[in-house]
Protein 1
Amino acid sequence: MNKIARRKFMQLSAAAAAGYFMQPSREALASELPHLTLDDLMAQAMKYTHDASTVDPATRNNPATDQDCANCDLIQGIEGDAWRPCQIFPGKAVAAGGWCSVWQPKA
């Protein structure tokens, strides 16, 4: 079983709670959502970047070179879209080629 640091657990819990309470009455299209910016506080806390290739694989929780938002279990929306909604960043669209520290492989 993976050990999760207390700080990481609190960040994930806060993100999950925010997502739960901010559910829209209908599913928003990614084209309607504002793009997540790098100066967003949640983006900074999750080490989000628009380009996964800029992240050193050795610094990731699960080191692997093929991690990006498009192959993360938390991304939503239509496969192939350049910007898609993400469960971690409610109300914002993330770059499919992006990456954050909460990345998890698709089940």
Protein 2
Amino acid sequence: MNNNDHINKLTEAALSSLDNAERATAKPYLFTRLNARMQNANESNWDNALRFISKPAFAFVSLCLVVAINAMVIAYNYPDKTTTVTEEQYASVDEYSSSVTVLNDIENIEP
């Protein structure tokens, strides 16, 4: 029982140490000092860039720029209706049409 008595004494000592405990108090103006330190923290360039990009005005301007670039690409790549067919295009059409065989010509109808 020596071992149990020793454990009981240690348990009683640990529990009695909390009898005179009081609520911890912070130093005056601690919250104000913490806020000031957090506001004066060094902001990186990435923080500033992300803050600028996340603004709705930047998103709207970016969207308009993308739409304008797409419209310009479509406008410049769309063929003009006034272009005429060149001789090279006629030559390729003639070559292509000469190789077509007609399957509807039946010479012998009887089996």
Protein 3
Amino acid sequence: MTTVIINEKTKEGELLLEFLRTQNYITIDEKIPSPSLNRSMNEAKNGKVIRGKNVHDLLSKLKE
């Protein structure tokens, strides 16, 4: 098995993926994050995180 990493954000990468999807002898395994992971990533991007000064402070805030 060979792994090829294609930058989908470039025009060339998009064209290559379009071509590969039309080939019946190639399997593209696209990892799609779960809804809960998407929700967590959006919360982190928007700054909805719990911060602590150190590990003990963080753990005490998480227990609240």
Protein 4
Amino acid sequence: MNESTRKKSRNIARGLPVVAIVGRPNVGKSTLFNRIVRQRKALVDDQPGITRDRIYAQASWDEYPFLVVDTGGLQEKGRNQIDEEVSRQAIQAIEEADLIIFVGDAKTGSTAEDQLISQILRKGNKPLLYVVNKIDGPEQEQLLYDFYQLGVSEILPVSAAHGHGFKKLMNRIVDELMILFGESPIEEETGEIIRLAIVGRPNAGKSSLINRLVGDDRCLVSEEPGTTRDSVDTEIEFRGKKYQLIDTAGIRRKGKTRKKIEKISVIKAIQSIEKCHIAILIIDGELGITDQDCRIAGYIFERGKACIIAINKIDLVKKDPSRRKRLLEETRYALKFMPYAPTIPISALTGEKVLKIFPLVDKIFEQYLTRIPTSKLNQFFEEITFKHEPPMFRNRRVKFYYATQVSTAPPTIVAFCNFPDGIHFSYKRYLVNEIRKKFSFDMIPVRLIFRARTSKYHT
């Protein structure tokens, strides 16, 4: 794999490596995809050809993140134009991928199409894992032998539907990605431009805020919800610093996204969260915090993004101090799972406090790119684990050997210990809170990953 291919694939979403699942139609690619991403994201049916477009989703195993791509079935020659387009989409996914998972079907055995696909994949000179699906237990693993005629030395038995062999497959995926990208697959940020995604429900004032910040009617503004349907990137400069503002379509509830164009808009909005440094969540101050606002905040939280909570239309409640106070309190309570995210009341219409967003962004971004020296981090870990001992696990005390920061944006720390599975979430929360206090990470998320020292990749 050459360097340009690697960089191309890593730019697709958040700098993560790309794992493509390929094979002929109806071998169980989408079922395996759903199991890897831990949700029913790809449509699954016994009828061949259900998957047509490439489907992307973020996944992780042992706290190691990557992007998975489900593809339609590769065929030697499409029966019609749609089949040919499906194959073209799959080939493009192969070109984008850093690691490819070939999936065969144990029930039908190796076929001529499998042979052809295997030849195509080997020409790409990329890391390959060969998987035979629909093997529900060890007693069926003899069905693997037919696939060794593909000329490979290792084939992994898997039941995507029932989970047999799944753990071994995921460990192999992470092993391959760690060889390619090291302990952390996320590239360091250069700090040249700060990317801000403006997100929220339809008609909360996202485009109005963009126009206020830019000082121009750059984005279409209308009373009709859903005016913005695609993500719009606008670069501005404020006091010598560059920012990229990403206006997004309003994210509706799933039940409200029946039209195809609206579903695509939601996907693009979530992709905008993926590629930003800081998400500015716009709350409609006239309506107050809603379940959908919390759901959008959850998207931001799950992706480890910093966040500013901007309560818009504050001019409408300005004359009622008690209502304004209640609005702020209710917002902070509803979003208590992101206690680090600062809240600012604004009015995109009048411009009240809008420019105060930039100093908040600068402070957050400075924390986002902070790197802690390893010696200082290990000294700190020694102090806090002495102050509050780690829990017991299997009649033995969890012991930390050393810690290191593997990436920034957000700060990601890997702590090596004897029993990663023995660390209760409450003790992890204690460690994260202590890290925040010690290193002034009061406005950003912090990732803390536990790994066993015994891994062959650790020295």
